[in-house]
Structure formats: structure tokens, C-alpha cells
Amino acid sequence: CSLQAGLAVLLKAERLFHSSYHSQAVHIRPICRVSHWFAQLPCDSFTVAACLFLVQDASCLAMSWELRQTLTVVFDFFSSGQGKKDWSLFKMFSRTLTDTCPLASQSKVYVDISPKNKEKELLEVSPPPTSVQEAIVQGEKKTYAVYDLLSPSLFNTSRSLNVQLKWKRPQDSSEMPIPTLHAQRYVGGYGLQTGEICTLIYNTHPYRAFPVILLETVPWYLRLYVHTLTIITKGKENKPS
Hints:
By secondary structure, this protein is mainly beta. It has helices at 13-17, 48-58, 77-80, 89-93, 191-194, and strands at residues 21-32, 63-74, 87-88, 108-112, 123-126, 131-137, 140-148, 164-167, 181-188, 196-203, 232-233, 236-237.
């Protein structure tokens, strides 16, 4: 559908490149085609995963390729909007969703409406979402308002979908909540002799550990040497897998 319909309508270049952060990625991986006789195996609901692994490992005669393209954009309206956290699709992208892509098997918009304080419902989204889903993300319970663009009722009342999030009243604190996993990076020293780039990754969960895949975007003015890489965890050197 290119930029004619679907979520790609929002991809206006001048808005994306003037955001606080944007990242584009292409992920390609091989997928094993499961044999048709998988359904004939004596598997119950508790052993499907194990049987699926055995079939893929033993009779993977044909491979498929999965292509996944992702775009991550960060808009900082809290700093530029005089401390207000309200936002909308039009405010971010200067466009709204007008139609779904007819070739898409699914097309959804998820809005995180998890309240910071369980006793105070401060968030409201409009228009009303198609459904509300709950999920466990990094050990925390999250609530999402889901807009299904393939739902016939979504575009019946209006030919334009402008998802908006507003706060019913000012929050008790202007500080943004710290995510469970967060990171910061800085450049130290100077030149090829003492120059270094340091990345600090924090896990604030009280007891759970998470696997981390780190992708570094190196500034053009830095020349890195892989053999100088050191990883320190809790004061001790740690070797990556």
C-alpha cells in the first residue's frame, strides 16, 4: 500500500527525522516449515511445544525466510509542550489514519494505558478503542487500548482515526516513571589512546534478570577496537555469549 493506506500513512519524513530519536531496522531469519504430519502426532496441550521442536529438528527439509521491518520513533512532547503529556497521532505525525491496507492480514494500534497509581485512573483515550488487552511485560502488568484497523466499525463514523491520549487532571508528580530496563551512554577521554565509549544498562526489577541484546550505533568520529571490549556486572568482569 506504500503511503496510500494503512499505518504507513503516518510515515511523514520531515516529522520522523525531526523527532528526538528514530531507528529503522530490517530483521531476516530462516523459519522451518513444519511437516504436514505434525497434527498426527500424539500431542496434548501440554506437549505441543516439545513435539513441535522435535518435528522441526528432525524433518526440517524446507526453509522459509521471515522479513520483519521495524521503525522506532521517540517524540518528546513533555519537554516541548510545557510539561504536558497529552499527545495525538496528528500532533506527532501531522497526519491521521484514513483507511486500512486491504492487503494486510492484521493492522493494529496499541496504546499503553497502564495507570501509574492503581487507585487513580488518570488516563483517557479517544475515540473508544476496539478492545482492551492485558499482558505481562518484563514482570509488570500492562494494559493496552487496541485499535483494530480491520474492524468495520472503526471507520464507519469517521473517515479519519486520530488516536488521542489525555490526562483528566494534572499528575501528582511531573517526573516520568523509570522503566524496568533502561540505559545511558557517554563518550569519555579523547583521541585513539584514551578515548572510550561506555554504555550503562540498569535493571530495576527487585529480583528478576533479563537477557539483553545490545546494538551499538557508533558515532562516525569514533574508531573502536573490539579487543578492548570489557563488560562489568556488579563489579565483576562478565563475558558475553
